[in-house]
Design a protein that fits this description.
The protein is mostly helical and 133 residues long. The chain has one domain. The chain is 51% helix and 8% strand. The protein contains four helices and two strands. A two-stranded parallel sheet has the order 1-2. α2 runs antiparallel to α3, α2 crosses α4 and α3 crosses α4.
Length: 133
Amino acid sequence: MVTVEFEPTFERWQAAARALLSDGISPADVEWRERPDAPPAPRASKFFRVPPRFLELARQAATASDPTRWGALYDVLWRIVNERRDLLDDRGDPGGRRLHGLAVVRRAARRGRGQRAAADARRAGHRARVVAR
């Protein structure tokens, strides 16, 4: 079992995930621990190409509050690199559905903050303009 301590940001997770992939460490052998003052991960000895769609979803999912998101992200990444590059196209895949779910929760939370800000502005007597992202 490898314990990875990292600052809880997408970029720090990505660097750690690259190093783990380079070393061939499977998701079942990784424990992810958030630590705000953690040093950066060692540089990966290899680089991997993944679909841009994975990166988009992973960035969104990384901002979710679910503490298991990092393991879920690494599991999907591992499978894309080692098993099926088209994994995200399979709507029946549990890992892909989980990743989509984490990203949707994040988008809904952002939308909810915008709606709350508009309601607060209306209560304060200001006209608010809400811009969808």
